[in-house]
Design a protein that fits this description.
It contains nine helices and no strands. By secondary structure, it is mostly helical. The protein folds into two domains: 68 residues; 197 residues.
């Protein structure tokens, strides 16, 4: 190689260098990352947030459902609570939306092709040579190489894993705090649902007991059917509150697990 002109030696070295860079990047892109798949699964699992939003809306509508069953004193109290619920609902919805947007962003960051720069590197072609008499000198060859080197640093599994690890690490504490807030709200919704149940079914119990004349027989039958329907409705929504809280807890545990796992993996790569 020493017998070759300096210009040709530089060209060959540059070509070998770029080939190695491209190989490293492509290997990084092609290497399967179980953690990336786990993050994508976490990001796609928005059932808990969706369930919370539905149950939150049901809580806001409590007064409208219970109104026909309220006494004047109960109606005045529930009207005030209804105003408070509706005033707070916009901020409650924003809490859930923040969690949803964060998960969506994680999913995009963990996308299998998000850090694939293969098309750009492949499009750059082979190394170039200096042509002093034609306007391309060593300075331009060096700039060409450095620019592709910067491009190669944008891609690869290592870079993607590093960025994900940082986002998961920094996002874990605020996410856990928001999930705890949603859990507390669900506990409040469950208690409120129990109070609504007691008011509605209590009134039906009284009305059915006093509907004992022949003229009120049909009314009593309708009231009993409504009582059974309402009892089942409140039972099912109680179960939904419990399930949603468990889903939120599972979401928090999985996020914390991935944050720890990717941070540890990134630390091992950094130490190499």
């Amino acid at each position: 190689m020493s017998a070759l002109p300096a210009r040709h030696r530089r060209a060959i070295c540059l070509k070998l260098y770029l080939s190695l860079v491209l190989a490293v990047v492509l290997c990084g892109c092609a290497a399967p990352r179980a953690e990336l798949a786990q993050v994508r699964a976490l990001a796609a699992g928005t059932d808990a947030v969706n369930a919370f939003s539905e149950l939150s809306q049901r809580h806001v509508d409590s007064y409208q459902r219970a109104r026909p069953y309220l006494s004047p004193a109960e109606d005045a109290r529930e009207r005030l609570l209804d105003a408070q619920r509706r005033a707070a609902h916009a901020d409650v919805a924003r809490l859930a939306q923040a969690v949803r947007l964060y998960l969506q962003a994680l999913g995009r960051l963990a996308d299998a092709g998000a850090y694939d720069v293969q098309p750009e590197l492949a499009g750059a072609g082979a190394a170039i040579r200096a042509w002093p008499g034609s306007g391309i000198d060593d300075r331009h060859v060096s700039a060409y190489t450095l620019l592709l080197q910067q491009l190669s640093r944008l891609g690869g599994g290592a870079r993607q894993q590093a960025d994900l690890a940082q986002v998961l690490h920094d996002g874990d504490a605020p996410l856990q705090a928001l999930l705890a807030a949603l859990d507390s709200l669900l506990a409040l919704y469950d208690k409120s649902g129990d109070n609504e149940r007691d008011m509605v079914l209590g009134l039906l119990d009284v009305e059915i007991a006093y509907a004992d004349t022949p003229q009120q027989r049909l009314l009593a039958v309708l009231a009993k059917n409504m009582q059974q329907s309402k009892t089942e409705e409140y039972r099912l929504f109680g179960l939904r509150h419990t399930l949603a809280r468990r889903q939120l807890a599972a979401l928090g545990r999985e996020h914390a697990h991935l944050a720890a796992a990717l941070t540890t993996t990134e630390a091992r790569w950094t130490d190499r």
